[in-house]
């Protein structure tokens, strides 16, 4: 869906993005991660041409984006930034309706879409429709920011450290909701973050950048178990590495199909780290597992968590 | 226990003025100085009653400033102010009955101080009540109406300032209109030049670096000097291109000078207003696919509007004042009346020109404050 | 949108000038006497069937004169003595002679500017000194010679005057030179501006010990406030007689102007002008009413 082909951007003598090539498949959530100055924001901003590359090509759905009028390109993508940037003088409804209005959608369709999105982002439409940004908390504002980005049903969503300015509790809630939205809408998402745990939690694929160079682009488990170099290893963090691996895999991946055990069953989609926590909390080394429909799927053994 | 120090100072000043300074001044003709007449000599019925609200003003500094007390203070202050004027008018009529037609009764220093103290007391009360702009305007209008009614009824006709008005009756309205025309005519070029200049100055540090220092220098040129500087080039231009219909005197130099003075507040406020637009708003707008024009019109302009309107308010009030000086180069307006009075050494004629200018400025200021309030409410 | 703005601008700027194209535009300076003379011109022209436009009391001398030369006004009352300054020939003694001065300025303005000077009024609105009655009477002061003798003999004179009067070689220095007296700096009170109303008032009220005022010959307040003018018997001052001056082209189009105005101006001697000025500046009567009343009383207006 999105392809970077040896893309380079220089600011003076220094290359912010240096001959980076990778692809993001349709429906994937790709996290761009790296320390400050690694070029991740710059790379993101080149996808909607807020920044123009000095060399290389970027293709979206096979098309070279340099050929399109920037405004048209941007109206087809959702864009969420850390500082949210809601228009203070417009209501929540009008803010969300920004791009549909630009595209000339009929009013009725816009209204319905706003209701739909408010519900999707867990904001009561009756209460929030007519509210103004200054009346909302930080978390609520960013929810509106995400809703605004999704309003025109874009196939691609670009997010630049959207949850970094929020408190941990709100951040977790929004991460969970993003995961749900991603699952349900199958939008392609490019997500910039400096928080490896966030990337591991949300992404299908992680692209690690170091001073403008792409160091590794792989699914989370591979980043954890087969890091390309020490830089990636350090980025992941050596402490509690084991728990991070457990966070990435799910119960369903290690369940033994036969057998029985006592206790409230674990859903098979639950991350193994949560399962470990449950076992410690309940003081047992095995728990029953159910699948998505609630049917018994086997037993999870503590020993299987630590097997190589 | 002193609850309102401001009001106490005003009341004390007014009492001191009433006792120590002349309330009115009576002169045998327009040129000679008059002899003072104290307030005590003037306190007759029926208009003496009009000073009773003054009792409220004397008591108020010691009362707890509840809403009732504040409202009573404001009402009393307005009534007292109108009462002072009425008392002066009554006494002037009494004096005129037995004096020569050339004799003049004018307001004395005591009157001015008491009147100002009363109006300031009203302002203080309005402020403490926290009234909204429309209500503030209503209070001001009421104060004005109480005096206007007396003028219309002819009660103040024997006061010197109104005797001067009687002489100027046919030119007075024309002067007021002309004054307004000068201000309005300068507004058009001010906005046409100032708005784009303000936008450019905010966007480009280089442009701002030239524009602001230049406008600052222009602002320091004394207005009479600027009119003088414009006289020669405009006359030359008028001579070369008579079809343009402009000249070195009159409306053209007045409008040009006023425009030059108005540019600084407008440009500064537009730049400040645009500066106040959060960068995140611009970023988000751009990232969502708004064209630069759409970002400007839909995001920047509405957010910068309140600051811009404040700048417009400052500009217009300044223009109303400067337009009075334009009379010196033949532009007419209320300034012409003021300067006639200066040349004839007739201070009440100067007042006849000056008081309307002040009222004009106050009205313009209030109207724009109302506009700012409406815009802010509409946006938020 | 832009055209609308440009048109509005153009209209506003031009509105000062685009009116009855053939009306004679009558201007005057800001002071009361000029206003009176200008108003008389206005009323006389209208009464004689000449359409006029009122630009009376337009501004100070420089503005009004420039306006005439630029063709923005057509006629206004000017003083013969001012010819000295317009044509930069101040030192020429001809200005101290009424007839010769008029002739000179008439010639110069006709040649250089195509401006016609009609016959002036026999009133000399020039600088003079006026002493308070209660000082003039006991000391028998009636002329500048008397005044000079009195001052030279130690008389306690204190003069209120403008800075221009004190410094201009044509003014106080000319008096001092012609009559042989000198005023010490502590005998002069300089008031800002050229305002004789302020100087007269100072002398009348004895402010700061002032008993003599700088006045103009036709000031209305002189007699009313109890001052006596010291006659300039030796002609130390330039002569300033008021006369209507009009652009030649306009006079050609409206020849009736001459006949309408000259008799009126001829009737205005110093005494008459002083009393008319007194009505305006001291009694505060309306200029228009004073003008009309006078013109009617002399039969110029029906």
Number of helices, counting only DSSP H or I runs of 4 residues or more of chain A: 14
What strand line-up does the widest sheet of chain B have? 2-1-3
Indicate the structural class of chain B. mainly alpha
Spatial strand order of the main sheet of chain A: 6-7-8-3-9-10
Radius of gyration of chain A: 21 Å
How would you sum up the major sheet of chain B? 3 strands, antiparallel
Largest interface: B-C, 44 and 44 residues
Helix share, percent of chain A: 25-40%
Notable traits:
heterotrimer, A: 308 residues, alpha/beta, four-stranded antiparallel beta sheet, 14 helices, 24% strand, globular, C: 302 residues, five-stranded mixed beta sheet, three-stranded antiparallel beta sheet
Task: Give a quick summary of the entry.
The complex is a heterotrimer of chains A (308), B (380) and C (302). With 380 residues, chain B is mostly helical. Chain B contains 13 helices and 3 strands, in the order H-E-E-H-H-E-H-H-H-H-H-H-H-H-H-H.
Describe it for me?
The complex is a heterotrimer of chains A (308), B (380) and C (302). Chain A has helices spanning 40-47, 70-75, 92-96, 98-103, 107-120, 125-128, 138-150, 168-185, 196-202, 220-225, 230-236, 241-248, 272-282, 302-306, and strands at 2-11, 14-24, 29-33, 55-60, 63-64, 77-81, 156-160, 188-193, 205-210, 213-218, 266-267, 286-290, 296-301. Chain A is α/β, with parallel strands linked by helices and 308 residues long. In chain A, the strands form three sheets. A six-stranded mixed beta sheet of chain A has the order 6-7-8-3-9-10, sandwiched between helices. In chain A, α5 packs across α7. The longest helix of chain A is centred in the middle third of the chain and has 18 residues, at 168-185. Chain B is mainly α. Chain B contains 13 helices and three strands, in the order αββααβαααααααααα. In chain B, strands 2-1-3 form a three-stranded antiparallel beta sheet. In chain B, α3 runs antiparallel to α4, α3 packs parallel to α5 (133-152) and α12 (334-343) packs antiparallel against α13. Helices cover 46% and strands 17% of the residues of chain C. Chain C has a five-stranded mixed beta sheet with strand order 7-6-8-5-9. In chain C, strands 3-10-4 form a three-stranded antiparallel beta sheet, with helices on both faces. Chain C has a two-stranded parallel sheet with strand order 1-2. The longest helix of chain C is centred in the N-terminal third of the chain and has 16 residues, at 32-47. In chain C, 51% of the residues are buried. The chains are: A alpha/beta (308), B mainly alpha (380), C alpha/beta (302). At the B-C interface, α6, α8, α9 and α12 of B face α1, β2, α3 and α10 of C.
